[in-house]
Amino acid sequence: MTRSVLVDLDAVLSIARLGSFRAAALELGMSTTALSNAVAKLEPYNA
User: Fold this and answer.
1) Per-position DSSP letters for 31-44, written without gaps between them
2) DSSP conformational letter for 47
3) What is the crossing angle of helices 3-18 and 32-40, to 10°?
4) What count of Cα atoms within 13 Å lies in the side-chain half-sphere of residue 29?
5) Which phi and psi angles does 3 have, rounded to 5°?
6) Could you tell me which of 33, 32, 16, 15 has the C-alpha nearest to residue 24?
7) Ordered per-residue pLDDT tens for the chain, 47 residues
8) What is the pLDDT of residue 47?
9) Angstrom distance (rounded) from CA 3 to CA 13
10) What angle do CA 32, 35, 38 make, to 5 degrees?
11) What is the predicted pLDDT for the residue at 4?
């Protein structure tokens, strides 16, 4: 796994822990759109 995949996984964990995209985005210092894109980049790994 590359570093970027690990960062994206951290984003997913934040969403799960906090229960919302908005809260996770605020915690991670990114927009909800950027957070959504990070989650979308993980889709190929969900096979």
Assistant:
1) -HHHHHHHHHTTGG
2) -
3) 120
4) 1
5) -60, -40
6) 15
7) 677 888 899 999 999 999 999 999 999 999 999 999 999 988 888 76
8) 65
9) 15
10) 155
11) 85
